[in-house]
Every structure is written in structure tokens, then in C-alpha cells.
Amino acid sequence: MQMCSWATVVVVTLLGRVCAKEAAAACSTASIDGCSSAKPDETALLQLDSGDLSKASKEGLNRPRRRWHRRGSGKNGAYSYTYGKYGYKTTAKTTSTTTTTTTTVLCNYVISISRSDQGASTHWQSRTATGPPGTTFETGRDFDEFCSTTYNENAFGADFCMQNFSVPAGVRLIKSSTGDIVGSGVCCNWVTNHILQVSSDCGPTVVEPPVCTYTVEVERSDQPGTGNFNLKVAGPPGDSFTFDGTCSADPEVPLASLCLGFNVAAGVRILKNSANESVQSGTCCNTVQNSVVSVTDDCSD
Fold this sequence. Notes:
Blueprint: E1 11-13, E2 16-19, H1 21-24, E3 44-45, H2 50-58, E4 72-76, E5 79-83, E6 88-92, E7 107-115, E8 125-131, E9 137-138, E10 147-148, H3 158-164, E11 171-176, E12 181-187, E13 193-200, E14 203-207, E15 212-220, E16 229-235, E17 241-248, H4 256-261, E18 268-273, E19 278-284, E20 290-297
Antiparallel strand pairs: 1-2, 2-3, 4-5, 5-6, 7-8, 7-13, 9-11, 10-11, 11-12, 13-14, 15-16, 15-20, 17-18, 18-19
């Protein structure tokens, strides 16, 4: 292939070689299509064969400036890129993180409690507790759930009850609705604590349902016609009581250990309320029977 003779430096561009307009008139061979003097004012595109391209590559001339790229987009690590006509541009990838902070609101509670032997509806002491809004509190006569032999938050805890009053069940507990122990009351015998009202800095004061103090007069079968002793019991208005023959040898039940010490294997007789709950102890469970003679309460005063 015959090349044009050049008076000036050939300008290398995309897709081939361009004849400068001053050199276009010097082209004399027909093999170079488009490089003619017919268009002296225009740059013409030289058509080179593979040999010429190889030679041009060696001379460092085969480095076309790409003007047309495919369009598209993609990702690379923390950056995204978009490429188009003249290349691609990078854009920093921004990741936004939303942090949610949960604040737990706690309320301070003051719990007014009574004790059945001093009047179930009469304030005895107060206990304080902390908990979420809507927390409720309870204390009961159940020896498994509401008595403890290890709780000693104050000087009158379980150790005090067991060592000074020989109460094997320890001290009575006050629990929250979440199951947490928030304080203690009396020793865990048949004297019970009751919640009268609960106030907090999160809401209005809650007044608990009324609790009555009952005086139950009990007769012994070996001394008929005579009311031998009285038992103090706390309960809701309208409660009733009876000895139905139930006995208990559980050492934690008041007087049961005493009866066992008298070689009464059955333990002590149990007084029950209308809800069939054990609420008091009678005589030892031998041949002597107990019966209820009369019941009075402070709710009707």
C-alpha cells in the first residue's frame, strides 16, 4: 500500500489517521480513498489496512481516543459508577443509619399495707417500690408464694421471724405484678398483710377493694357449749368460715410443729374460708374437733 507524502505531522485521531487540509492536495494515489484535493477544507479519514495498523502500533500511533462507549451503570465496593459517552464518573455511596432510642419510664410507688391482727382495713405501714406504669402489687396468705425464709431486706426479715418468734415460714412478702419482691410485712403465720391503696408519681392513687377483719369464735368438742378461743381472719365482705376436717402436718403452717411435738402425726386442724382457702389453725388434729360458734367483722361497724 502506498502512503501519502506528508509535509506536516500526521494527526492521530479515533478510528484512523486524518490528513491535515494542507496535505490533502499532495495525495496522488487512488488507494487512499477520501484523501483528495476535492475537499481541501475538510479533514479526511484514511483507510489503513492491517499492515499499516501494525506499523502504526509500533510507532505508538494506534492509540485512538474513544468517543463512543456503551452506556450503563454498576457498583464497586462503596462506590457506584455510571459510564456513557466519554467514560464513567464515580459517586460516593451514602449509607444512612437510623438509631432508635427506647426510654423506659419508671414510676415511684408508695404502698399502704395493713395487718389482719390490727384491723385489715387499718393502715399499718408503707412500702416503696419502682416499676413501669400500671404496675400492681399483692400480698397473700399462701406459704409457698408469699413467704420467704431468706428475705432479709430490713431488721424484721425472715431471720428475725424464725429466731425470735419461731415462725418456720419466715417473713411475708409483697410482690409486684411482674413477679418482683418489693418488700416484706409481718412474720408468715396466720397474721396477714393487705394492700389498702397504691399511689405513684405516674398516675392517680389506686384504692384497693375493702378488706374486713373477722373474729371467729371457735368451740372445742371436748368442752361443748363454750366458746373456747377466737381467731382473727382477714377477708372480703361477706366471707364465711368453717372447719371441714382438713388437717396439716406442714411445719410451716402455724401450730403444726407444736402438734407434731405432741405426737399428733396429722398436725393441726385448718379453718377455711368461703373460697376454700386455709386461713387459720385450730386445735391439734386428734380426737378433739373444732366448730365455728359465731363470726363478727368490722365491715358492719
